[in-house]
Design goal:
The radius of gyration is 20 Å and the shape is elongated. The relative contact order is 0.16. It has 206 residues and is of the alpha+beta class. Helix content is 25%, strand content 25%.
Length: 206
């Protein structure tokens, strides 16, 4: 994967995270949710009145689809609307079509899973909802809650970034549940889970 494609994918994922972070209310975040195309999503690309250019394609591990005439194009991390605009410009810039009308739809969503480990009552892997967001507190609740010896003030979220590096975020789940904020820690409402995230609840030192 060349540097420009890597930077594009990296940037689009951070745009998504920044947009989520602007909402202080999980309900508002869910209303504002817009699906961004994921690796292994299967998409249909229709070109109006150009049936021979219509394609069903799966986004590969590089975030790329291969389309007639224009070849490889990076759409991983983009919204459907952004992907449509990008494909349209590619057909125009290559002078293949004068005024293409592109429709992109997701035919099959890639598995979107996260895992939770440590001092949680039901550790394991959980599927993220497809058309809405999911927070750390919601995952903790779905997994049965933190055990009696779990440290809810230091829940960590490990995320693998598009360039292969890892970032670890700390979330004070206890204070979020109680409606308080902790200085220096991420509010759960501003850190929405992404596919592949690993959540860990440490043991409380007695």
């Amino acid at each position: 994967m060349n540097a420009s494609r890597l930077l594009l994918l990296f940037a689009t994922l951070f745009v998504a995270a920044s947009a989520f972070a602007q909402s202080g209310n999980p309900a508002d975040a869910k209303k504002a949710y817009v699906h961004r195309l994921q690796l292994a999503d299967r998409v249909r690309v229709d070109v109006y009145q150009e049936e021979e250019l219509t394609r069903l394609a799966r986004i590969d591990a590089r975030g790329i689809v291969n389309l007639p005439l224009i070849g490889e194009l990076t759409i991983g991390g983009l919204t459907v609307v952004e992907a449509q605009d990008l494909i349209q410009r590619a057909y125009q810039d290559g002078r293949f079509l004068r005024n293409p009308q592109i429709t992109v739809s997701v035919e099959e969503y890639a598995p979107r899973e996260v895992s939770i480990q440590g001092q949680i009552r039901s550790p394991g892997r959980y599927t993220l909802p497809i058309e809405s967001t999911f927070t750390v507190v919601e995952l903790v609740t779905k997994a049965g809650g933190i055990t009696d010896i779990g440290k809810g003030t230091e829940v960590s979220v490990t995320r693998v970034m598009p360039d292969g590096t890892k970032q670890v975020f700390k979330v004070d789940v206890d204070n979020v549940i109680k409606g308080r904020r902790s200085a220096g820690k991420i509010d759960d409402n501003t850190l929405l889970l992404l596919p592949g995230d690993i959540v860990y609840v440490p043991e409380r030192l007695i």
